[in-house]
Amino acid sequence: MKSLLLKDMDRLLAALAENRTLYVPTDGAGGAEYRLYQPGTPLSEALNTNRSAKDFFFPQTENMMRFQMRGKEIRIEEPTRPDEDFVVFGVRACDARSFELLDKVFLSEPVDSYYQNRRAHGVIVTRCCGRPEETCFCTAFGIDPTAPGGDVSTWQDDQRLYLAANTPAGQALLNGVAHLLTDAPETAADDAKAKTRAALANLPIQNLPLDGFGEENLLAIFNDPRWAELSRACLGCGTCTFVCPTCQCYDIKDFDTGHGIQRFRCWDSCMYSEFTRCAHGNPRVSQVERFRQRFMHKLVYFPANNQGDFSCVGCGRCLQKCPVSLNIVKVIKALGGEKA
Ligand code: SF4
Ligand code: SF4
Questions:
Q1: Smallest CA separation from ligand 2 atom 7, residue
Q2: In a 10 Å sphere around its CB, with 0-12 CB exposed, 13-18 middle and 19+ buried, how is residue 244 labelled?
Q3: Residue 322 CA, ligand 2 centroid: distance in Å
Q4: Helical packing angle, 168-176 and 9-16, nearest 10°
Q5: Which atom number of ligand 2 is nearest to the Cα of residue 329?
Q6: Hey, whose CA ends up nearest to atom 1 of ligand 2?
Q7: Domain ranges of the chain
Q8: What is the pTM for the complete model shown?
Q9: Which of 159, 136, 179 is nearest to 327 (CA)?
Q10: From the CB of residue 215, how many other CB atoms can be counted at a distance below 10 Å?
Q11: pLDDT tens for residues 286-303?
């Protein structure tokens, strides 16, 4: 394990930014967001950013390719290949875990080369949560915020930042800033971890009833009459999907620039009435069906196809951002208990 005096934090960030693009969480008028590192900008101490670190690997909008049409001839220009080396600093354990879930989607056949390229060029430095909030429930999904993962994990006490590499890419990153770091015993971050565990023990939604979401209960959950009540207030605004680190739906569109066709993709939301609209219309015509789809996917379909892994990391963003206070915790509490 390595350590750094907190007063040298900006020197560390400046050194990381020398050879790669560096993104850090900073405070803004609307809360914390990841931004391009600027020397002297203080790191946000907010628990989490409004939008997750997913954006760096799966951006909200992304140009995919351009092509020209001359009569019946189509000339495709080289597809975009994102190849910028970058570091995302300060990712929490929940968001770090979201990449393992996104990998299952984007890196299985057919591989999404855009996401794959960004994963190959991005290094994730995580940060142990000092003050988890009442909306946090990552532990319900087996995530340990005191072992936040990523390529490099970091922990902090009043004086120092402690750093440990988890991957070759993380070790290479630390080697590049070795002149700023000193050796520390493996137990150096134990007090910081203990504080986080003590804070977690007092949070209200750490233990949620997830046992009932097994594949064997799929039809019973799908047909449960309580979906109508659970979804009644839903506005279909899609906010919950846009702030969610594990949502991965997108739409692909072509745009005539006047000098050729630009193909791009952008995030989409299963909460929208036009989502996956086909020639015959929309397969889910009511908001209750759309609402049910979102949570069936996260709690039943995804785990059924991914060795039991739920497609939620308990980050709490949807609890904080839904304008009518609907969220996945309410769904879990209502439908997640043991089935008869
Ligand atoms: S659950 Fe809330 S955030 Fe999500 S679409 Fe409905 S109203 Fe919007
Ligand atoms: S469903 Fe809500 S709590 Fe779960 S990962 Fe998405 S935004 Fe976070």
A1: 244
A2: buried
A3: 11
A4: 110
A5: 3
A6: 312
A7: 2-201, 211-335
A8: 0.93
A9: 136
A10: 12
A11: 999 999 999 999 999 999
